[in-house]
Amino acid sequence: MNIVILDGYASNPGDLNWDLLEQLGNVTVYPRTTDEEKIERAKDADIILINKVQIDSETLDQLPKLKYIGIQATGYNVVDIEAAKRHGVVVTNIPAYSTDSVAQMTFALILAITNRVEHYTLENRNERWAYNKDFCYWDTPLMELSGKCLGIMGLGNIGMKVATIARDFGMDVYACTSKNACDLPDWITKVSKDGLLAVSDILSLHCPLTDDTYHFVDTDSLKKMKPSCILINTGRGPLVDEEAVASALHHGKLGAYGADVMTQEPPAQDNPLFNEPNAFITPHIAWATLEARTRLNKQVAANVKAFIEGHPINVVNP
User: Fold this and answer.
1) Is 123 one of the catalytic residues?
2) Are 145 and 10 found together in one domain?
């Protein structure tokens, strides 16, 4: 099998290897691939592996040898799934590899906002504490999580992990979910979207991006939320209307926004969120721990191996 990895750098910048894949065929790795380069690079491939390279119907028309697309991520919106099915191309993804890491980042953002560790660390590097008149100081609000209401949109693997951690912090957990209330633990309260918006001291988004969840948090949603609410997005950028969120922050209608994802990645330099001191943005790194990427690369190889052996797994276009 001729295996071509079109954007290998994101998941493996050099601290992992491709040994498991190299046991399965002839592997060519490109760190990055532009839209203009993808046809030429993939034209002789039986298998391509991608992360963010877009594979649409027009691209598939020009790759008659292609049999398999392995997405090195959980989300598969980068591939035209129906077109791949029409072309007889199997598409697989990697489910649940980053659950612990994304849940950890969710709380890293929450704690960055509530405890402001980086702020005080930088202040002290500039000797502020050394010259302080009292034994301590603080110039930001500090919040205890215990007893606060955490609202979760989406109770998949990551949402449930976040809920469990929140419970350990002593938080009251509310969720907007398609799951039946009787199937939830008794410490999670199921609510409607409006109920979730109204009750949350912290609102964390963990749902897939669909037509129904696009701009789940918009101008109307923000009006229903507490002006002190902390909004967290480690799901997908377009789950929020970024201009509406920036405006709410600017006018004191939202307490803070913590996000590891943005609508456009990399984001535009003039994105209004970058001008808001209560916006805490990380560059889509929740999934990128060494442990999560190791699991990812192992599952990528397992998916390819299963396909070659004739019983594909984690197929998203059956």
Assistant:
1) no
2) no
For residue range 78-112, what is the model confidence (pLDDT) as tens digits?
Answer: 999 999 999 999 999 999 999 999 999 999 999 99
Instruction: Clarify whether residues 130 and 259 are in a common domain.
Output: yes
Catalytic residue among 236, 242, 276, 295: 236
Its pTM stands at: 0.93
**Is 265 annotated as catalytic?**
yes
Full residue range of the structural domain in which residue 87 is found: 2-97+290-309
Q: Are residues 113 and 221 in the same domain?
A: yes
Same domain, 153 and 54: no
Q: With respect to residue 318, please indicate whether it lies within any of the assigned structural domains.
A: no
Same-domain check for residues 260 and 295: no
Say whether 284 is catalytic.
yes
User: 3-state SS string over 191-258?
Assistant: CCHHHHHHHCCEEEECCCCCCCCCCCECHHHHHCCCCCCEEEECCCHHHECHHHHHHHHHCCCCCEEE
Q: What is the CATH number for 263? A: 3.40.50.720
Write the pLDDT tens digit of every residue in 228-251: 999 999 999 999 999 999 999 999
Choosing from 206, 284, 293, 295, the catalytic residue is 284
Cβ-based burial of 2 (10 A; exposed 0-12, middle 13-18, buried ≥19): middle
Q: Choosing from 22, 40, 118, 265, which is the catalytic residue?
A: 265
